[in-house]
Amino acid sequence: MTQAFRSLDEFRALLAQAPAADLTARKEAEARNGQLTKPPGALGRLEDLAIWYAGWRGTARPELAAPQVVVFAGNHGVTAQGVSAFPAEVTEQMVLNFEHGGAAINQLSKAFGASMDVHALSLDTPTADFTQGPAMSEQELVAALLTGWSAVGDETDLLVTGEMGIGNTTSAAAIAHALYGGAADDWTGRGTGVDDAGLANKTRVVAEASALHGGQGDGIEVLRRLGGREVAAMAGAIARARSLRIPVILDGFICCAAAACLAATEDGALDHCVAGHASAEAAHQALLGKLGKEPLLSLGLRLGEGSGAALAIGVLKGAIACHSGMATFAEAGVSDG
Ligand SMILES: O=C(O)c1ccc[n+]([C@@H]2O[C@H](COP(=O)([O-])O)[C@@H](O)[C@H]2O)c1
Ligand SMILES: Cc1cc2nc[nH]c2cc1C
């Protein structure tokens, strides 16, 4: 594939040109939904989900046949500040675990019939510690965005982006604080499980990062200054999915921070996304509120890897199976109200 973009401005231009949903297919799906053998609205959010999916796939009676889970891994210089309960080498060790099929996301992908790919991004070269300077150069960010962009399969009809990166809840918190303001502790949580002293230290790091980088540029610039390679790759994949009209299920706090960088850069950039779940990471619910997304599931997960979103594939499959498979009142000879 020829390189889709060579600079951040070219990536911004692609975001600005992103296609909308097919309104005709959406309207036809709404009409079909009204004729199905159930009381109006009785399938609750499943009805909205099926109509949303139909609009993005451009057909009133869609199938969901090829879901793809893609997991990106990156290392973070900010781990030098002691922000995680786990050592940085766990990122690489977990990549091996993903490759050998031993992680939670391997099992969930299999359980919901999704393909799964893992992309490790320059693990030997952590991003710069963003309390000292920008996490990435422009070219490093372009490379990470391109990794995500290129990871999306042409035949994919639903995308889940997951991540693995020790230290990345600090990156996500710093992104959210830079984008939405408030206090550093509004956005800082325990991640893999830091104790009270660890949480206080992490909050200091987020505050210092925002003081250094806040208020400078759009969401893409925030991503360059405070993101990580796997965070950027998720943003690139979500943007590529949009260009192909592939619906996306967002995962937890880090995935949503990546998505927020797109939303802050271009209005409507996440119209092709639904929120798979509410993570137990303290600020995820608030971040979902900023994105205007209502989570499908709330199961106390705080794993990442795309795990909550992968579970929500099952919900979406259920919604589409009902929408596309049910008989209408006329077909079934059932009296409508
Ligand atoms: O998805 C979430 O909401 C989530 C919440 C807490 C932790 N994580 C995972 O834990 C790792 C980051 O935690 P930490 O404490 O190292 O910043 C990273 O690999 C994430 O996938 C993920
Ligand atoms: C073991 C482990 C697995 C993970 N998966 C995603 N983030 C993780 C963090 C840790 C520490």
Features:
globular; binds nicotinate mononucleotide; five-stranded parallel beta sheet; 15 helices; 50% helix; 337 residues; binds 5,6-dimethylbenzimidazole; alpha/beta; 8% strand
Structural class: alpha/beta
Quaternary structure? single chain
Number of helices: 15
Count of DSSP E strands? Answer: 5
Give, in order, the helices and strands: HHHEHHEHEHHHHHEHEHHH
Q: How would the global form be characterised? A: globular
Ligands: nicotinate mononucleotide, 5,6-dimethylbenzimidazole
Main sheet specs: 5 strands, parallel
The largest beta-sheet arranges its strands as 2-1-3-4-5
Mean of residue pLDDT values: 98
Strand % is 5-15%
The rounded Rg comes to 20 Å
N-end to C-end Cα span: 54 Å
What is the percent of helical residues?
40-55%
Would you identify the regions where 5 or more consecutive residues have pLDDT less than 50?
none
GO molecular function, one term: nicotinate-nucleotide-dimethylbenzimidazole phosphoribosyltransferase activity
Pfam family, one: DBI_PRT
Enzyme class: transferase
Keywords: Cobalamin biosynthesis, Glycosyltransferase, Transferase
